[in-house]
Amino acid sequence: ALPDDLKAIVDACCRAVNDSMLAEYTARNQQALEQLIHEFKVEFRPLPDDVMTALRHATAEVIGEITARDAFAAKVYTSYRAFQGQAASWHRMSEIAYYERRGEPAA
What is the DSSP string of the chain? Predict the structure, then answer.
């Protein structure tokens, strides 16, 4: 095991890399989106409700099969779903509310 000072250094480095990646991801995805829309004339449209419903059902079926045969996958998925619910609650109160108050569509 690493001493506490080296653990702190590794932790700080991991956080810095994560922050850098998120900033780059956000900036470059926006640039790519602009290129797709303006240069390549891509028209983005939401998937139809019936397609989304079919995808949701297929996803649930596959996840059910995987988690039924793998206890670790079940543990990870249960944890992920709990976090996802918490994150969704936060985003409704933060990012989504922010964009709606500004009169902009929430992504």
Answer: ---HHHHHHHHHHHHHHHHHHHHHHHHHHHHHHHHHHHTS-----PPPHHHHHHHHHHHHHHHHHHHHH-HHHHHHHHHHHHHHHHHHHHHHHTHHHHHHHTT----
Q: Where are the domains of the chain?
A: 1-44, 46-107
pLDDT in tens, 13-50: 999 999 999 999 999 999 999 999 999 999 999 999 99
73-96 exposure pattern, b = at least 16 Cβ within 10 A, e = fewer: eeeeeeeeeeeeeeeeeeeeeeee
Rounded CA-CA distance 45/37 in Å is 12
State the pLDDT at residue 54. 98
Interatomic CA distance for residues 22 and 31, integer angstroms: 14
pTM: 0.62
